[in-house]
C-alpha cells in the first residue's frame, strides 16, 4: 500500500503531466469536436471486407451457396455504414503540421465516397483474384489456393493495399495509411497506399519488403523478401522543407523479378520489362528491358539477356 508521501508524489506527477499536455499541445494533443478515425474500427472493416471478398475462407460458420447472396448483402450493407462513419471522421478531421500549420479538412461527402468505393470494389476483387493465382503459380511450395489465401503474408498485405489504394484514389485521408500499417504490423510488409501496382502481383515470403508512395509496378511482377523500392534522397524547397508530391520511388515495368535484399532507389530509376534484379543489389540507375543485374565480387554489373 502506498505511503502518504508516495501518494503526494504521485498526485504531483499527475498534475505535472496534465499541465504539460495542456501547455505543450502538438504533437501529443489532438483537440477538436470531431474525433479521429479509430484504428480498431478501420481494422474491423478490413477484416469484414476480407470475409466478403473471400467468402467461406474466414469466419467461424459454414457458408452455403444458396444463402450466399443474402449473407453477403447483409454484411456489405453493415460494412458500408461502418466505413461511412470512419470516413466522416477522416474528412472532418483538422490535421496539423509542426509549427502550427493546419491541414484543412477534406471537402468530401462520406456517403458518396462509400458508394463510389463499393461501385469499384468488383474491379478490385478481380485484381485480388489475380494476385492469389499469381502467388500459387509463383511458388512451387504452394499446395492449393486455400493455403495461399489463409497463410501467405504477401497475399494478405497486397489484399489490404488494394483496398487502401482505392480509398486513397478516392481522396480519403488517414484511413488508407491505417489499413496498410495494420498489414505492415501483421506481415512485415510495408506498402504505401499511394503506390501504383499492376495485375498478378506476388510478394514471396515478404518480410522486410518496403514499397514507397510513388513507386509504380507493372503487371506480373514478383518481389522476394527484403526488397526496398525507396527514395534516393528527399528534395527540399528554398526553406529547407521536404518537397512532397514528387516522384521519389522507382518504376518496375511488366514481368520484372527482384530477388531478396535488393534495394532500388530513386524516382527516375526505371527497371525495364522482363528484367531480373539479383539479391542484395543496390540500384540507383535505370536498366533496359530484359536485363539481368547481379553483384560481382567487386562491382555491380548488368547484362542484357536475349529475348
UniProtKB/TrEMBL annotation:
The keyword Ribosomal protein does not apply. Signal peptide: none annotated. GO terms for biological process: amino acid biosynthetic process. Keywords: Acyltransferase, Amino-acid biosynthesis, Transferase. GO terms for molecular function: acyltransferase activity. PANTHER family: SERINE ACETYLTRANSFERASE. NCBIfam families: EPS_EpsC. This is Serine O-acetyltransferase. It comes from uncultured prokaryote.
